[in-house]
Amino acid sequence: MEDKMQKIISLCKRRGFVFPGSEIYGGLANTWDYGSLGVELSNNIKQLWWKRFVKDREDVVGISSAILMNPKVWEASGHLKGFSDPLVECKKCHSRLRADHLRENYDNKCPNCKGEEFTDEKQFNLMFKTFLGPVDDEKSVVYLRPETAQGMFVNFKNVQQTSRKKLPFGIAQIGKAFRNEITPGNFIFRILEFEQMEIEYFIEEDSWQSVFEMWQAEMQKWLVEALGIKKENFVIREHEKSELSHYSKRTVDFEYNYPFGQKELYGLAYRTNFDLTAHKLDLDGYIPHVIEPTFGVDRTILAVLCDAYREEGERVVLKLKPTLAPYKVAVFPLLANKPELVKKAREVFNLLKNDFMTAWDDRGNIGKRYFSQDEIGTPYCLTIDFDTLQDNTITLRDRDTAKQERISISVVVDFVKQKL
Ligand code: ATP
Description:
By secondary structure, the protein is α+β, with helices and mostly antiparallel strands. It has helices at 2-15, 36-55, 71-77, 79-82, 99-106, 149-154, 156-163, 208-226, 274-278, 297-308, 339-353, 366-375, 386-391, 409-418; strands at residues 18-20, 32-34, 60-62, 84-89, 96-98, 122-125, 129-131, 141-143, 169-178, 193-203, 234-238, 250-258, 261-270, 289-296, 309-312, 315-318, 329-333, 358-360, 380-384, 393-398, 404-408. The strands form 6 sheets. Strands 3-9-10-14-13-12-11 form a 7-stranded mixed beta sheet, sandwiched between helices. It has a 5-stranded mixed beta sheet with strand order 18-17-19-20-21, with helices on both faces. A 3-stranded antiparallel beta sheet has the order 5-4-6. α2 (36-55) crosses α10. 34% of the residues are buried. Residues 3-322 form the Aminoacyl-transfer RNA synthetases class-II family profile domain. It catalyses: tRNA(Gly) + glycine + ATP = glycyl-tRNA(Gly) + AMP + diphosphate. Keywords: Aminoacyl-tRNA synthetase, ATP-binding, Cytoplasm, Ligase, Nucleotide-binding, Protein biosynthesis.
């Protein structure tokens, strides 16, 4: 299965989904850059999420808050004290490792040198520090946010007053978060800088169980209906009491079956009224409780790629939902050296380009061009040939069935639209 991961990583690099960060300088461990196809996939995911959970709902509004926040936020939220992982160092090779990962995954042997002696555990805070202004002293320390959630809590009053929402209602945000992970890795699974899509859904305390169930069902529907992830490839796992974060009374993880094991994709937590209480907001009377569905963008991309990846005979195909695919359609003139075909194909290309991300390919034989689009998940390929010049029909080839049919240029835009 590790093999499948290597194939996906290499496809991502070769086709422009994901590149190693700072590659020409030898890289920077666990940083990755999204290429021109990766950014389309990522944007498609974020837009679908925003539409489903903000635009289409009357009870959720969006914000976009700053990454740098007053350090008092992190003191109040408990992150300065509590947002840490247990760190140990291998006495032989000095690798720094997470004690819990060492126990669970490596049988207490160093994964680098197989050493069995480690320093005592100490708590390592995962927040990245930086300095505000020209003086690098303790007074000017600020942190890069480790979650977007606090931006929603500190703006609770502003949002409630301006949007005039009454309980229950939610605040949503998509944005970067940063964690100085001790053992990052597995491609874009655990990285230092990632994106989150989070909702803080404010409620009356006594409704928490039913609202929790509602969001659990919504998250499940998002995975299956919007992303097309197969039901058998993820599970919902209840957190044990000992696993719960400092603010949570109940948490479930949505775990995806990645090629390297079943691991967290999303989380759903009942955060009580811990955060709003901690920030001492001047609310008249009742302090709302909160249910938090949280979705990692990068882990979504990884799960979607793993789920869509297939090897079928000679071809590799990404069976992405058409809504997620970077290109919706590709246009091919049958022969690149026949100006009348190229001209006609350009007309079709321009027609489609208005509505969809459209690829152009005029190199090599048609079979190779199909395979090339299969590998990046383009649902439809259109070929313009000599018959097109006579009757304005083109060959439409379907990625999943590899079937070809002849359709009229006049209906092609509607055809693709219907599939989105
Ligand atoms: P883990 O147990 O894997 O460290 P977590 O429980 O700390 O994750 P949360 O604090 O619940 O994660 O973060 C919310 C979401 O943000 C996660 O469900 C995941 O999708 C994403 N996420 C968290 N940490 C990372 C990371 N280092 N790289 C990529 N995505 C991340």
